[in-house]
Amino acid sequence: MLRKLSLTLLFAAAGFSALPGCVHRRLTVTSNPPGARVLLDGNEVGETPTSVDFTHYGTREIVLQKDGYDTLKTMQKVPAPWYQILPFEFFADNLLPFQLTNRHEFTYQLQPSSTIVPTQELLGRANSLRSEAHSNP
How sure is the predictor about 68, in pLDDT bands with cuts at 50, 70 and 90? Predict the structure, then answer.
């Protein structure tokens, strides 16, 4: 009888492990205007609009950079849904017979750069740096 119960539990465990239950997490970053370079936790992930899969919830550092606009740096909270909080997380990640999709979308407004350097000043700086580079071998 014990052997039969052990085999039943073994087959049940094998069956549960074959279930596709898991959570697909996706983070989408958009900006106005589009085309800004996106760094997520220090890693470049593309240009807006862009989407990236992620594993952990919590606070993420998002940096947006675009020529002619101020760099935007923010600490964005990515909250976990109720089914990703213990003890529900175990069942959602391992035992559900279907896949859950959790999407987070964040949109940011970029501000035009407030410090536009005149062309002549830029050329002067470039010539100065070039002179320094040639004089210091």
Answer: very high
